[in-house]
Write a structure and sequence with these properties.
Radius of gyration of chain A: 21 Å
CATH class of the largest domain in chain A: Alpha Beta
CATH superfamily of the largest domain in chain A: PurM-like C-terminal domain
Number of helices of chain A: 11
Largest interface: A-B, 75 and 74 residues
Strand order of the largest sheet of chain A: 8-10-7-11-9-12-13
Distance between the termini of chain A: 44 Å
CATH topology of the largest domain in chain A: Phosphoribosyl-aminoimidazole Synthetase, Chain A, domain 2
Mean pLDDT of chain A: 93
Structural class of chain A: alpha+beta
CATH architecture of the largest domain in chain A: Alpha-Beta Complex
Oligomer: homodimer
Strand content of chain A: 15-25%
Shape of chain A: globular
Number of strands of chain A: 13
Chain lengths: ~350, ~350
């Protein structure tokens, strides 16, 4: 029994009260959620002719985040954003989220609330509803597994396997920032003294933005042959897209849109900024393979989504996976993989 | 580096190889999965007019199972079955599963394969496909989070909130067996020497059967006002159904279909078999609220599904939650809740 009469941990509150706290925080579900939190399962109505796009991804304590580094609200937000990024890469609109929380009994209730608030905020930012899930105790590790459900018309679905030799590769935003943000955290940086551009790297690591509008805009215009997101780095994404499309790939090192602070950070530590940016994970930018004849439609579609893109290379007829700088050609490095 | 040249743990194999092992084990996806394992997300086509039913549930090591007690294949199978039970309670047909695995690096590869085989076997038993998910390392605890997606026509959906005062309550199968199975494991029973009826309790705990056919049959006939499954025990299910339906509930202690071995087990340990059966969790039977005028249609529907049912009580106009035995009336006990 607690000596403090206030409820302070999730164990003090109990499972039913936690579900009720989630229900209150989630608010009124969207009209397409006909049964939401509190039944055996959620029920969702699809728009006529749409297919369901479904993805699940988890954040595990001490693997994907540390509670001592990152605020609980950001953890909740990121757990949803990384899933919405996968929906974006398929051209789908996020509709519903299921939240599986595995919580050590001593998790502070305030952290629980903040995590759920982060989940709900990210749902609302993209017009989706938190529609269900479950809570269980976990003896030693806090983990969040999120399932995101989206909808898209089947002829407007993007996959990573649709690329063709000769397709131009375009990348949204910039890369290297999230990896730099992680390096800052690993170096126990003092947030209060960070320069703006490094603070941006930290934000990019802790609160990635899912390019949902961009993915949908390009998919809706059928302006790309293939797409995937960059969760495990550009080299990994390019390699996987090429493998799935049965093509090779060549990336132009000089064209890569490397975040300025990430470039400076690499140079200061004696690393090659291009090599670092190729393997740095968690940027959640989108990589598109665009046939030359669709280039104008593609550029118009990303412009409508108010996203910057850079042409960074091509898919090729040969099977090599490489990046070039001037006359030098290098094998694409591997990306981050769990269990190495 | 391992001194043994054979690959033996998931860390030795690596994430990509693990995904490939899952893809091989999952086999060819059903025709409604138009994009399966290996892309950013799975894509599923719904039957015309159907809504999506979605649920997620996780099994966490040392909370829901112990690796020293239960074979990995059974863990995988149960992780899916408990989700299909939720779909069954909504009247939905299972179509697709997303599998999130959180694995300590030293998880033996043979255990990984067996868990995935269990997942696939349970999917196949109900005509569903393993369509996606993700794998991540987990520093200390093995956890499986499964999302199950099903389809149902909206007017044939069952919820727990549709009950009306006067509805008759019916329960499939028998209760108390799974809790007895767990007690056997906690008592470090020797499997080799178990009597058949106790071995059945162990099976009911480790390999629960989701009553998918029964749920769909009753829902398809619109023969029940409400339904839910018994994951946290009968008392809890009855209480939750009544709360959601804004009714009271009365259960007839003498009518409860208590598993014979569970009854004997309770009596031998000096416990009241009815009280034990009310709170024993994990039986995954279905509880139905049936209006008297639909009784014949209901009984015909469960008979077609070849499931036994027992009438065990009623929903009531007053708000009391109780069970009775002869002239004695008792408040319904609470069920198992995480963080109790």
């Amino acid at each position: 029994m607690s000596v403090n009469p206030q409820i302070q941990t999730v164990a003090d509150a109990g499972e039913r009260a936690l579900i009720e706290r989630i229900r209150v925080r989630a608010g009124q579900p969207s009209r397409w959620i006909t049964t939401g939190i509190g039944d055996d399962a959620a029920v969702m109505t699809m728009n006529r002719g749409e297919v369901v796009v479904a993805t699940a991804d988890s954040l595990v304590e001490d693997v994907h985040f540390r509670r001592s580094w990152t605020a609980p609200r950001a953890i909740g937000q990121k757990a949803v954003a990384v899933n919405f990024s996968d929906l974006a890469a398929m051209g789908a609109a996020p509709r519903a989220v299921l939240l599986s929380l595995m919580l050590p009994p001593d998790t502070p209730l305030a952290d629980f609330d903040a995590m759920v608030d982060g989940v709900v905020a990210e749902c609302e930012a993209h017009g989706a509803s938190l529609a269900g899930g479950n809570i269980t105790s976990s003896p030693r590790v806090l983990a969040i597994d999120v399932t995101a459900l989206g909808g898209v018309h089947p002829r407007r679905t993007l996959t990573r396997s649709g690329g063709r030799p000769g397709d131009e590769l375009y990348l949204t935003g910039s890369i290297g920032a999230a990896a730099t943000g992680l390096a800052l955290l690993e170096g126990s940086v003092d947030r209060g003294t960070l320069a703006d551009d490094l603070a941006d790297c930290l934000r990019r690591y802790e609160a990635p933005i899912a390019h949902v509008r961009c993915g949908r805009s390009v998919a809706g215009n059928r302006a790309a042959n293939a797409c995937m997101d960059l969760s495990d780095g550009l080299a990994d994404a390019a390699r996987q897209m090429a493998q799935a499309s049965r093509t090779g790939v060549v990336l132009e090192g000089k064209q890569l849109p490397i975040h300025a602070a990430a470039r400076a950070w690499s140079e200061r530590s004696g690393a090659d900024p291009v090599a670092s940016a190729l393997i740095g994970g968690e940027d959640y930018e989108l990589l598109f393979a665009v046939p030359a004849k669709r280039r104008r439609g593609f550029l118009a579609a990303v412009k409508r989504a108010q996203v910057e893109t850079t042409r960074i290379g091509s898919l090729t007829a040969d099977s090599r996976m490489r990046w070039v700088r001037g006359d030098d050609s290098f094998e694409l490095p591997g990306g981050y993989a769990h269990f190495g």
